[in-house]
């Protein structure tokens, strides 16, 4: 298992055929987790996305954002909960224990609460300015470090993350990075995935265990 992980999220702005085309050209084995984050699509459509993308991400875990019904229907190994999803504890009651639960959090308090309820990891952001979160102020590196300290489960950083700022992000002790536009909307997604993986693997920062 790799020390730090690379999560890639679908954008909600592309058709399945385009995402599949990109995946077919990319070293997807360098990606630890693909998130199907298609908030405007129904559960049936999301199951079709999973069926089409899973073979292209054979070595990645494919997690489903929000829709536990779709995740259960396809046997996905993980879900990602958003602010308006079922809570972590509600999700735990529904999902088999083997299904990983990630939870989007926006403060150290939310991160600690998600961990307490049984989240396997939290996603915290946005760290830097991001076109994917227009008009919203970024939370910054110090806030990420504070979340890492407050939280007993791995923290994945998201928002405005590029290969050039990965080292600074990992210096907080977080467990990895999640990227949306900088991979799937990039002109050269394959090269960009390699740059991310190299930047992550080059970093010598250690994971912080949290609560210390
Ligand atoms: C009112 C409000 N709060 C938060 C969000 C963003 O949702 P979030 O839980 O952060 O889920 P992801 O965007 O991370 O998938 C929102 N849209 N509105
Ligand atoms: C889903 C989400 N949550 C916080 S920032 C973000 C989007 C990050 O997108 P990008 O990687 O394009 O900055
Ligand atoms: Mg969020």
UniProtKB/TrEMBL annotation:
Keywords on record: Magnesium, Metal-binding, Thiamine biosynthesis, Transferase
Annotated binding of 2-[(2R,5Z)-2-carboxy-4-methylthiazol-5(2H)-ylidene]ethyl phosphate, by residue: 130-132, 160, 180-181
EC number assigned by the record: 2.5.1.3
Annotated binding of Mg(2+), by residue: 66
Biological or metabolic pathway of the protein: Cofactor biosynthesis; thiamine diphosphate biosynthesis; thiamine phosphate from 4-amino-2-methyl-5-diphosphomethylpyrimidine and 4-methyl-5-(2-phosphoethyl)-thiazole: step 1/1
Reaction(s) catalysed (UniProt annotation): 4-methyl-5-(2-phosphooxyethyl)-thiazole + 4-amino-2-methyl-5-(diphosphooxymethyl)pyrimidine + H(+) = thiamine phosphate + diphosphate; 2-[(2R,5Z)-2-carboxy-4-methylthiazol-5(2H)-ylidene]ethyl phosphate + 4-amino-2-methyl-5-(diphosphooxymethyl)pyrimidine + 2 H(+) = thiamine phosphate + CO2 + diphosphate; 2-(2-carboxy-4-methylthiazol-5-yl)ethyl phosphate + 4-amino-2-methyl-5-(diphosphooxymethyl)pyrimidine + 2 H(+) = thiamine phosphate + CO2 + diphosphate
Residue intervals of the Thiamine phosphate synthase/TenI domain: 11-183
UniProt remark on cofactor binding: Binds 1 Mg(2+) ion per subunit.
Domain of life: Bacteria
Family statement drawn from the similarity comment of this UniProt entry: Belongs to the thiamine-phosphate synthase family.
Function field: Condenses 4-methyl-5-(beta-hydroxyethyl)thiazole monophosphate (THZ-P) and 2-methyl-4-amino-5-hydroxymethyl pyrimidine pyrophosphate (HMP-PP) to form thiamine monophosphate (TMP).
Protein name according to UniProt: Thiamine-phosphate synthase
Organism field: Paenibacillus konkukensis
